[in-house]
Structures are given as C-alpha cells and as structure tokens.
UniProtKB/TrEMBL annotation:
Keywords: Kinase, Transferase. GO terms for molecular function: ATP binding; kinase activity. It comes from the Bacteria. This is Kinase. InterPro entries: P-loop_NTPase (IPR027417), PRK/URK (IPR006083). Pfam families: PRK. The keyword Transferase applies. Residues 24-138 form the Phosphoribulokinase/uridine kinase domain. The keyword S-adenosyl-L-methionine does not apply. PANTHER family: URIDINE KINASE.
C-alpha cells in the first residue's frame, strides 16, 4: 500500500503547492480494490506533512432508500439498488466538494450500508474548511459514458432478464453523461487503481463479503452478491477499457492488489 499512498500524497502535496488552493484528487477503483484504505492512509500522510486533508467517498452520497424506491417506481425497478450512476445525490456531492474549498465548516454526509440508508445528520463528521487536499474516491469516480451503440447488447443475465428493453442502462448512461460529468469536472487529477479484470473484482468483492459474514453473521450470500455486483459489471468493464489511457496516474494491480513495479 505504501507504494501507492506515498506517491499519491507527494503528487497531491506538489499540486497544492502549485495551485495554492484546495486540490481535488479523484481516486477510481473497482469494488475491493482498496481505494478507501488508500484514501484514508494518504490523508494521514498529508496531515503528517502539515496539510489539511479529507477523504470523501462517493458511496456516502447514495440517495436515501426512499428516494431510490421512488426512482424505481418512476424509471426502472433496478434503480432501487444502490451503486450505478443515477443512485447518488450528485447535487449534494457537488455542494460538498465546493464547500470544502470555501471558508467555514461542513458536515460530511455518511451512508450506512448495513441499513442501506443515509445516516442521520447528527452522525455526520464536521470539518473546518477550506482544506488543502480532498481525496474523492469511488468505484466510478471520473468515469465517462459509453457510446449509445454499446448499450444495445446486455453484458450479463441481469441486463438480459431484467432490462430487456435497455431502459435502465440507458438511464444510467445518461446520468453519467450529464450530472456526473459536471461533478467530475471539479477534479484536478484522476488516479485509477486498475484491476486485472472484472472476474478478479468479483473475487475481491466475494472475499470482502465472506469476511463480513464471519465477523458479523450478516451480509449477502454468494448468490445475492453475484446479482448485486451484476449492477456494476457494465461500467466496471468500460472503466477498465477506457480510463487507463487518460487518467493522470494509472496503478496496475495484480490479483493480490499489489501495484505493478513500473507504476
């Protein structure tokens, strides 16, 4: 992890020195890639250097359960499941990033995945602003929309059986092409943790869920998890194809999450 966190902290610190204002670093990584751990460790390193830094997760901006249920009723049933573009409060995410660059204080939204709902505001962390560096991490941070023709064929059984007309994936793609791009345009740099393949991502996420079951007795079964991850498959595969060529820094990971020595 040090082989990623140390260089990432150095990049962020240099950029802060050059720009002389709050720096927003996007950190994109598939489920199980270690992005949350890397973001938190990088923030600690930056603070050790005397900089104020905050790690912000796209996951904490999921729409409340009731809002997703409304979307599911009005647009498509698959939007009840958190994850893909269209299931986040993009306006709140943008406002939070903007507030982190302005003088004052901000309460950072937080999401309870076990409850599948936003935490009460009283449980949000409050930080003084502006901060020097924000590490904004998420599984699709910085992603771009696919071309329309790419949506024609389903990528898995979920799309084939539950989105036969393509309305769900078209909605997700349109959200990514619209409000999400406006959100991501705020980023000064984009870093990608590049997984070897979607199949490895599935193995990582399965490992995470099994550890959760062992620790808490809760969590999804392997079959439930496979269906859940199917919501992420199309965009995860597209990110692994499209993003490496344009990210400011691409860190290639092996199946054990070790970075490639040349990166």
């Amino acid at each position: 992890m040090d082989r990623v966190c140390e260089p990432l902290a150095s990049r962020a610190a240099r950029l802060r020195q050059v720009k002389r204002k709050t720096v927003l670093i996007g950190l994109c990584g598939a489920q199980g890639s270690g992005k949350s751990t890397i973001a938190a460790a990088t923030v600690r390193l930056l603070r050790d250097r005397g900089l104020s830094a905050v790690a912000l997760s796209l996951d904490d901006f999921y729409l409340p359960k009731a809002a997703r249920e409304t979307l599911a009723a009005k647009v498509h049933p698959l939007l009840a499941t958190r994850g893909p573009p269209g299931t986040h409060d993009v306006a709140l995410a943008g406002a939070s990033l903007d507030q982190l660059r302005s003088a004052g204080r901000i309460a950072l939204p937080a999401f309870d995945k076990a409850a599948d709902n936003r935490k009460p505001r009283a449980q949000w962390e409050t930080v003084a602003t502006p901060v020097d560096v924000v590490i904004f991490e998420g599984w699709c941070v910085g992603a771009r929309a696919q071309g329309g023709s790419a949506l024609a064929e389903p990528v898995n059984d979920l799309e084939r059986d539950e989105d036969a007309q393509g309305r769900w994936r078209a909605y997700v793609n349109a959200q990514l092409d619209g409000p999400y791009q406006t959100l991501f345009e705020r980023l000064h740099e984009l870093v990608l943790l590049e997984a070897p393949s979607f199949e490895v991502v599935l193995a990582w996420r399965t490992e995470q869920e099994r550890k959760l079951r062992e620790r808490t007795g809760g969590g999804m079964s392997d079959a439930e998890l496979a269906r859940f991850i199917a919501h992420y498959e199309r965009l995860t595969r597209w990110i692994l194809t499209e993003m490496p060529g344009r990210a400011n820094w691409t860190v290639r990971l092996d199946a054990d999450r070790n970075p490639h020595p040349d990166d």
